[in-house]
Amino acid sequence: MLKADTKKISRQVKPGKNVLSMHPVIGGDAFYWDRGVWDWDLFNAIKKAFAIILPQTVEKEFYCLCSKMCPHVFPNYDLRFQWEGKMGDTLAFWAYGVRHPHTLVFPKVETLLGEHSHMDHTVPELPSYPFVLKGAHGGEGKQVWLLENEAELAAKLQTLLQFELHGSSGFVIQEYIPALERDLRVVVIGNKVSSYWRRAPGFLHNVAQGGEIDAESDQDLQAVGREKVRQFCRRSGINLAAFDLVFPAGAAAPVFLEINYTFGRTGLGGSEKFYTLLQDAVDEWLQATL
Fewest CB atoms within 10 Å of the CB: 36, 127, 265, 289? Predict the structure, then answer.
């Protein structure tokens, strides 16, 4: 049920312009935890709201309802739910002309293998081994594999078939950029853009997979990466996400790998720091909106 929240955001509310928060930490004039039941009372609250604050874990259907009924919604997840997951990242990079590795998108495993063995099926030309295989969903390095040969590809395709049986279909095959021991994580929270390197000797650099954070090295490259992300966000409307970029050997411009709409907070200084940054971003957004 809808209930009042004890934590008020720091702004002067104009008459009739109430803010509905569905975020468990960020307050508003009224609060509704979006994991509760969606009912007619909530629908009416959404219709009456001038602005809505949503959590990163919001469901696609619920986000679409809020953005349909309310003129101002934070964060802006239009692109997230237009093109979802690893496949969606690629489509977004294509659409906005962002530099990224050569990538093939497969809606289903049968797209690569062919549905019927007796029928002619033209296999698309794959990158030379090794190459990267990414399932449509998954974070923190999950569903991301560096494949060295056909046997490894066949095994992972069986894994992807199992995912399909549980409703998660699609994957991408991407060229492998060698000799990388770090990637650049660029985090966008409202108008604030932060960055840090994630270092690891192996293929995956995720902190959850043992990667180390380095916020100090190569500040010039970090600045270039942040500016490229700013440009992308200005065009796409993204205002809450983390981007993974790499600089191939000797390159002055980054290559975009992924967009992450839910992301780790260790590199930002932990959850408390993240929520401070998020609160500041919401306050700034509301000041510009109200």
Answer: 36
